[in-house]
Structures are given as C-alpha cells and as structure tokens.
Write a structure and sequence with these properties.
Elements: H1 3-11, E1 20-25, E2 30-33, H2 35-41, H3 45-48, H4 59-62, H5 65-75, E3 78-85, E4 91-102, E5 108-116, H6 126-136, E6 140-145, E7 150-153, H7 165-168, H8 173-176, H9 182-195, E8 199-208, E9 211-226, E10 232-241, H10 243-261, H11 268-279, E11 286-292, H12 293-296, E12 310-319, E13 334-337, H13 342-349, E14 353-355, E15 366-367, H14 377-380, E16 384-392, E17 395-404, H15 413-450, E18 461-468, E19 478-485, E20 491-498, H16 503-520, H17 526-543, E21 562-569, E22 574-580, E23 586-588, E24 594-596, E25 601-602, E26 614-618, E27 624-628, H18 646-657, H19 663-674, E28 683-690, E29 698-703, H20 709-724, H21 730-747, E30 752-758, E31 762-769, H22 789-796, E32 799-805, E33 808-816
Parallel strand pairs: 22-25
Antiparallel strand pairs: 1-2, 1-5, 3-4, 4-5, 6-7, 6-10, 8-9, 9-10, 11-12, 11-17, 12-13, 13-15, 14-16, 16-17, 18-28, 19-20, 20-21, 21-22, 22-26, 23-24, 23-27, 27-28, 29-30, 30-31, 31-33, 32-33
Helix pairs in contact: 10-11, 10-15, 11-15, 15-16, 16-17, 18-19, 20-21, 21-22
Amino acid sequence: MSIHEERDVAGRRFDVADAAPLLLDAQGVVTSWTQGAQRLLAYTATEVVGTRATRLLSAEDAARVPELAERCLRDGGWAGLLTARRKDGQPIRVMVRITPAMEPGGAPHWLVLISDVAGERGWDMSREVLEQMVTDSAVGMAIVDTDLRCVWSNEALERYGGGSPGERLGRRLAEIQPGIDSADIETQMRRVLETGLPVVGYEHVGQVRSAPHRETAHMMSFTRLDDDRGHPMGVYYTVVDITDRHRARQRLALLDRAGEQIGRTLDIVRTAQELADVAVQDFADFVSVDLLESVLRGAEPEPPSDRDQVPLRRAGHQSVNPGVPEAVVEIGAMATYLAGSPPIRSLTTGRSWRKERLDPLAKDWATDIPGGRMATFLELGVHSVMIVPIRARGVTMGVTTFFRRRRQEPFDEDDLSLAEDLVSRAAVCVDNARRYTRERDAALVLQRSLLPRRLPEQDAVEVAACYRPADELTGLGGDWYDIIPLSGARVALIVGEVPGHGIDAAAAMGRLRTAVHTLAALDLPPEEVLAHLDDLVGRMAREEGIRPEDPEAAGIQAVGAGCLYVIYDPVNARCTMAAAGHPAPAVVLPDGAVSFVELPQGPPLGAGGPPFEAVELTLAEGSTLALHTDGLLVHGDDADSAGADAADHDRLRRALEQRAPTLDMSCRAVVDTLVPDRPHDDVALLMARTRLLGAERVADWDLAADPAVVADARKEAARQLSEWGLEELVFTTELVVSELVTNAIRHAEGPVRLRLIRDRTALICEVSDGSATAPHLRHPRATDEGGRGLLLVSQFAERWGTRYAPGGKIIWAEQSTTDPRG
C-alpha cells in the first residue's frame, strides 16, 4: 500500500462506534481483547491476550510492524489498511487506527480500532463496549470543541475536582480548574487544532480543586478529532496523575544538587550556607542552620542538656525572599534557644521534629538574641516547620530548620524523610570540615610556632616577611622562611618548602628548619649547607624505608623539599647563594629595575643527584632580595605544574616594580597582588634590603708572622676602640687580640690579618691566617705553662668560633657593646 493510499484511507470516514477495539502494550503485546475483535477474527481472548499482535497479521504486514511502530511514536498514531488473518487462516482486509493511551503510573499503551472494510457491519454492541472502556478507565479523558469548551468527559476526571461530566459541559478549563495554568494548556490545544499534530506526554504542575493546598503533577496528551471531510471538530485529551513520579524526580534532583553543591570546601560556615542554599526554592521557603560553638572551633561537641538554654551560632540561612526577612539573627550571631524548645529537643535526642501547622501567635524559640528580634510565627509568615539534627558519626553538631511560607502545602512525612537525607549528606561534610578545622588549626599553631616570631635585629639587611597559608581544600603546607645572623656581621637568608600538607608537613618543616640552624652555626658556605641537608634528609628517609618516588614520601621526612640558602656580607656587599629544587630569588636594584638571579638548580633534598653549585654576586647598597616559595608564582589550577613560566615571572616583576613607603608594605602588596585570600598553595615571601657597613665601622691590619707584632696589634686595637667610644672594652679586646694573633703566628702559616667590626650591638674581632687547621679549646692543668688562650677568649667573648675561607680560616670572637663584660 503506497503512502498516498494510506493518506486516502486515513481521510475516509472511520466509524469508531462500529470498530472493534483492542489494547496493546508498548511491546506490541495484546493486553485486552473484546468480543468485537473475536467476532471479526474468530480468536478468543484466551488465545490472543499475552501474545504479540504480529501473529494476527499476514507475513507481509507483520514485517512492516517495526516501521509502523516508529511512525506511531513519531506522529502520535497511525491509520491505514492492513491484511489480518482469521483463525481459520483466511485473510481479511481491515482498516486500522492506532492512538496512544496512558495508564496510571505512566506505562504507555496503544488503543487499536479495527474495522472490516469489506462492508461487513460488525458487532452492533461495539459502541457500548467502547463507551464502557472509556467510562471505566482510570485515565481521565475529555473532549473539547474548537472553542475549547468541554463537550464530553469521563468520570475519571471527577477525582481532580471541577465537577461531574455534566457539570463540566460548556465550560472552559479556567472555569473548571482555576488553580492550574489553563492558558498554557489551552495553548497546547490550539496548536493541535491548527497543525493536526498530536502532543504526547505534556507535563503540567499546579493545584487542582480536589487538592487546593497541594502541588500536583499531571501528564496530558492531546489529539485532534476531525469530521468526515477532515475538518477539525475538537481536541481529545487524556490526563494521568504523575504526582508521585514528579516528587520522586524532584527528590532525586535535590539530592543530586546537594551532592554537587554541598561540601565543595572544608569551611564549616560555607558548608552550612551551601546546605541552606540548596534546600530553598524547590523544597522550603526559609532554612536556617545553627551549629554548636565548639563545632565551629573544630572541637568535639559536648552533648547539651534539654533543661538548659543552649547557645547556638547561626552558620547559614537562606530564603525565597530577598534579604531573608524571616531571620531573627544574622549569620555569625549567637541565639540561645529556650530549654525544652523543639530545636533543643532535636539537638539532645538526635531525632527530627515536624509540625504541619504552627500556632501563628507562638513566638520563635530563641531568646537573648544580641542584636536580634523576637517575632511570632505570624509576623514571620511561616506556617509549617521541620527540625532535623545535624548528626554524623554518632555526634550531633547542630540543627537545620525548614519552614514553609509561600507554599500552602504543609510538610509531610515524605518531606521529612527527604530533609533527613539532605541533612545527613551535609552533616558528613560539616563533620569533615570540623575535623579538618581542628587539624588545620593544630598544624597552623605548630607551623607558626616553628616560624620566627620576630626577625632578629642586625645591620646587614632590612627585612620584611609575609606568610599566607593555603586554603582549606589543599590544607596547610610546609613553607618556611628564616634569617640567621652569622659571624662577621653577615646574615643567612633562607626560604624553604616541604611537600605535602597538614601536621606531617609542618613537623617535617620544623625538623628541616632546626637542621638549617645547626648547620648555619658551623659557618658553612651555602652549597655545603645544602649538601649536609640533602644527606640528612636522605638518611632519615632510608631509616624509615621511604623512597623518593613513593607517594607517601612527601611531607613525611622532608623528601623532595626545596630550599634556597643565601649569605650576605655587609662589609663587602657580596652575596652567595645556592638552591635545592627551589626558585631563584629576584633582585630589585635601587633604581627599581627587577632581575632574576641565574642560579643553577640543584636537586630537591633527599632526591639525589649532582652536587649543589653556588653563585656569588655583588649587590649595590639598597638592593632588595626577594626570596619566595612556589606558591607566589604558580597557584590555582597551575599549582601542580613543573614550575613558573615567563608569564609568572612577568607578573612578579610588575608587582616588585611597584613602590611602597616601607619594605613591610611592599612585601604585603606583592603577596596581595599575586596571591588570592585563599591560595591553592602556601606562600612565603622574604624581602631583604641590603646595607653596607662603612669604612668608619671596619678596621683591619696586615700583620707579619713575628711575635713582636702582637704588642702593636694590641695598641692599634685599643686606639680604634677609643675612636669608636668603646673604651670600656679596651682591656678585654686587647686580651682577645693578643691571644688570637699569638695563636695565629705560633701555630698557623701564611699571612695574618686582624679585623675589627663595630656592629649595632657587638664588637667583632677576627684574625685570619692561611692554615686550614682549627684550634681546639683546652682546659689546661695548673702546672701547664700554656694552652689558656682560647679558654680566656671564650670567657670574655659572648660567642666565638671558626669559619673557613678560600686559602685559610678565620677565628672570630664577639663582645656585646650594649652589655659589656668587665
């Protein structure tokens, strides 16, 4: 049969009353068989129901069924001629019309009307059978004319309200159901009238007369009815209540949204606010989240007594109304709930509480609200409430309160179950945030206790430092900075970074910082300090059985840590530095020009590799060294990249070029410019502006290797101290100079040099020689004639020591100029 023939057949008169109806399910299986169909094809219901309809067709037409099924789904139905086979095997030409029908619960069915086109009248009771089917159907059905006025409806529509079939006659939908969006539904009807294309599965949500305070959902289908000449007569539509399915979808959507939007951070207050935000609009009209004060501190909450007035802090709230007018306290404020009030009962018992209709004249349960207000529920405009405790791992941390204001439908048991699911998911996030807050605070306290509380005073550099911890998602890291005064008025500047996060990283940082202080006391050059650190970290890792490539190595024994070690000498303005897996510093010259030191990169500590290399440069007075960790350059999504690129250095360059009144302000401005308030990684920045000790504060003499010069050395030292106004130190200095010069001449070799340096708080005496042999402090017996030199030096000096230089060593001793020893 051609498409043109099918269209011709579809346009012919099809007497529904004389057609034999049957029902098929979505798979084409016969689910209902009438006596009219039995009379036409001779099969009984027992023989046909439960079998596929294709067995009733000729082989040729049975092969067309998949194609016809697609057309039915696409066009909402089909009409045409098919060849059926009677029970006796005889073919019979029948006219077929297929239209969709929806059963309760949404299962799709197809209503099939078949009529013998050979002129056979059919069964004269088929009209009554068809009327019985539509009258007794659980699916609501109605027909409207071209003016959209009801001309017929079945009794199933009565359960939606709006009157009996007789009371509906002649009325528009807006008159029958004023609580629904009749304009939108009638728009669908007019479209079907104009185009002839059916609308299947249209969903509508609103209030019907049978449930004026409850939101209901319906699925509707619309089909145009034509007369014998193909002119539209009206619209036939079906209505199925899908409220349960609609609410189930809403519930799943809400829980899915909660999974995506709650707990995106490890901040307790933000998590509480996310819970309130998710629950408003589609579920509640006003939501408040109140937590125990101890929870916000990260501590374990203590179970309150229902006989006490319990203070809770508002951690989050949200409303469908702008400005949250229902809130009697602001976020962050404290509200004390009355003993025995529903929030306290939920808090102490761990059980939810629901009230379908609140007493409008009852007051809110909170009292003693600083800056808050008391109000009745009528004033707040709320009428239905649920209170759900926030519990996780057996601990109750607070309560979440859900109110309805705009929606007239009160909360029911299904709503309470949904609220409990929602809050239970959020409670795990709140508890994770609480536990993280506790660990983060502990790690932050540990780290801050390990960082220098106050940078030491010295004359070598003016220093400023800024440290910004990582956000709560990443966790606190192991960045640190330090400044260590060295002998000879020099200073060591250190910035380091331990991989990993949390207390382990902070503890590893503390161990590494302690080791750096110990090595700095030995007055070693930067590359040797890093070599000793590398050996120390590697040995500790081996003792713990940790390999550098192990994922758990980071932050446990400082494996993979980076460190930059810089020594600056204010006497000659020389700066020596070496790096272990750490970015090189930037240098800001006195004229504001910014450059980056070309520093050979050594391997991270504990990773093994080639030896560390140092570079030496001379800095003009007033130059600024900017030592920093990776987080200053690389942050956000790029924080895990291999390092900073040219664009990152350009950003740092522009930030350092900005002038500020003080070095502290400049340091803070650089961090604020480059780093967000909640960075992905820890950030440490140490800025040091160089100074020079003028010639008036340094005096030195070359001495011959002759014991006779010892007396001259004492005299020159005494004269220099008199010029500096340090006469009170003349006696002890003469003694120190005499012993150190005598030892150098007696036990060392090469040229001997004496140098005095007047620092801010100390007088430094240095004697250098060409020997690499270090002297040893001895405790001579009473009968010994010598060996008391260094012992006397140690008695009169605050500190003394030895450091090695190319071509020899330097013995030095410091005396305080602010508290001289007599």
